[in-house]
Structure formats: C-alpha cells, structure tokens
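Operator note (shift B, R.M.): manual run for thioredoxin-dependent peroxiredoxin requested after the automated queue skipped it. Running by hand, logging everything below so the morning shift can see what happened. Input copied straight from the record, untouched. If output looks odd, do not overwrite the archive copy; leave it for review.
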Amino acid sequence: MPKLTKPAPQFKGTAVVKGVFKDISLADYKGKYVVLFFYPLDFTFVCPTEIIAFSDRAAEFRNIGCEVIACSTDSQYTHLAWINTPRKQGGLGEMDIPLLADKSMKIARDYGVLDEETGIPFRGLFIIDKNQVLRQKNHQ
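Run finished. Output pasted below as returned.
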C-alpha cells in the first residue's frame, strides 16, 4: 500500500484515450495533479455511474490543473467495447478520460487495491500531486 506524502507508484500501460489506444504513464502527467481511480470490472451496473460522472466533469478538473484516469484489470479491448456501447445499453459512450488497462494487475497491486484471489481491483481513489507525491487515498 503506498504511503501518503511519499512518491506515488509509477505506472505505465495502454489506455483508451478519446476512442484510440495510447500508451500512458504517470510520468506523462508530471506537473499536473492526477486523480487515479480503480473500479472492479467493465460492463457492470454500478461502475458506469462514477466513470461517466468523472468524464462529464473532466474539463472542470483540467481547468484546475488536474487529470483523471480510470483503471481496471480489464484489457484495453474490453474498455473500447464498453466505450463503444451506448449508455442506454449499459455502456459508457464517449469518454473524456483515459481508461487504463491493467491486465498484469501490477498497477492495482502497487496501489494496494488488488483482490489477489479474484484478480479484480477493489474500488480505490488516489490523488497524486504535480510532483507525483501521493496526497490522498480512499479505498475499500
């Protein structure tokens, strides 16, 4: 479990950004605050509400120098399928935040939110400052 006021665990992986695959890393966001949140699985009933809410307000976060990244242990292909599914059919629709794939489970494990028995992350939210120091953590 990462400790507050210490460097946040570095990560890199493939995300779906504006409908295309893109490799991203925490280092890409140096100089900005980051809200990194984990959710259990794509295509579940509860997860879309929080992901959509963050996406719908992404511009407000950017206006204060903060980027939001959603992460699960699903693949980037599953993320893309979920984004391409209309909201009325249980999908996300167009997203304004990256959905980061963590198939290796390394990111979830490094942030202390991985259920080792299932390979599925618990819900967790982490605020990382512009110097990539962990400032807040909230997880189940």
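Quick read of the result: The first helix runs from residue 47 to 56. The chain is about 20% helix and 30% strand.
Leaving this for review. - R.M.
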